[in-house]
Amino acid sequence: MKKEFHFEVHTQWQKNQFVNPKTHTSTIDGKESINVSAAREFKGEPDKRNPEDLLLSALSSCHMMSYFYVCQQEGIEIMGYKDTANGILELHPDASGGFKTVQLNPVVTIKNSDQKSLAISLHEKAHQLCFIANSINFKIKITVKINIL
Fold first, then answer.
1. In the chain, how many domains are there?
2. 16 in Cβ contact with 31 (< 8 Å)
3. What's the pTM value of the predicted model, to 2 decimals?
4. Given 21, 82, 102, 143, which residue has the most CB atoms within 10 angstroms?
5. Which residues of 58-97 are buried (b: 16+ CB within 10 A; e: fewer)?
6. Do 20 and 65 fall into the same domain?
7. How far apart are CA 35 and CA 18, in angstroms?
8. Do residues 65 and 28 share a domain?
């Protein structure tokens, strides 16, 4: 039986509320609001989060949490995890566009050197489980590095 979960975000903009007319507020009930703007490349405020940053953040975070899940199932103790996600957004002449590719670069530190190969291979399973990766239409590349503590 499939389960459904519902999420809701409130986006609010009002004329003259911010110096930059592309800046707005994103609110999720019960959580701190954030000010969002267009990316600097699209005349937004460079010190504000932008939708492109948030998409990369969501993808990187979702992959990490899916990876933690599969590692826990396999008995791999993760001691540290960091990732640098890079994306290429392609802009078309008609001003439409989208991400063409995203590169995830997780660096994982584990305790047991005997689990290194398994720890590497589990990134593919994590990718298959990632809700965000399953919701997008661009290619995701994953380059993994495993460190042993």
1. 2
2. no
3. 0.94
4. 102
5. bbbebbbebbbebbeeeebebeeeebebebebeeeeeeee
6. no
7. 10
8. no
Tokens 């997008």 -> residue: 136
pLDDT by residue, tens only, the chain of 149 residues: 999 999 999 999 999 999 999 999 999 999 999 999 999 999 999 999 999 999 999 999 999 999 999 999 999 999 999 999 999 999 999 999 999 999 999 999 999 999 999 999 999 999 999 999 999 999 999 999 999 99
62 and 31 in a single domain? The answer is: no
Length of the chain: 149
Enclosing domain of residue 141: 58-148
Pairwise CA distance, residues 54 & 69, whole Å? 22
Do 66 and 44 fall into the same domain? no
